[in-house]
Input
Amino acid sequence: MSSCASNRSESTVLVSGWGAPFAWRGFEGREGEVDGRALKIVAPPTPAAGTPWAWRPEFFDAFAETDAQLVARGFHLVYLDVRDHYGCPKAIAHGDAAWRFVTERFGFAKKCAFIALSRGGLFAYNYAATFPERVACIHADNPVCDFKSWPAGWGAGPGSADDWAKCLSVYGLTEEQARAYATNPVDRAEAIARAGIPVFQVLGDADEVVPVEENGYVLRERFRAAGGVYHEIIKPGALHHPHGLEDPTPVVDFIVRASA
Output
């Protein structure tokens, strides 16, 4: 047996015996259900030391060049379906179950690296604030950091009436309670910074959906003020889409270093 085939077998065996097989961008994976939510795990050809993993809470396979490079470099990739949950406490509880599942059953590293696009920022930052000991780093791309900005649309952006109705429902809030809500990522930036979790944001400074002045910039300033380790790439004139970088190497290297 070739070494490549042997490595692939060693990697896949970590997640074998659970779920159904699927293929993703030339890699092998398994998919099933945990805590009532769909879960996907993509296995690397050769697992890196310590079995690091990246967690994508939203938009599996969307603008996923960073994800693919990480898998090629030995990371497992995990996707938990918490769509339409907007980082609410119920979503974080599902995330707790998923973390326990992959770390206890498959021996994944105790700390994950988040890849958070758009509304995925609500989950990633809220999870990190709730379980800071479980997060190695956060990469956020045009992230939602305050539901009052999106989907509520109480600032410069248009918001989304349909998503706002869903958001209020899953949080169990009235509009009045939502206006007074003080546990959005922008409100928790200091706690994440003090926990020593490094952050790398990629921001389009002309984002018309999730205005950076109400989201990424606010989190940046509060995070830095608290002494957090912060990295950033600004895309001048860039809108909300497309996400990502033409060359995601700086982000991939950041995640590999933080997860080592």
Summary: The first strand starts at residue 20 and ends at 24.
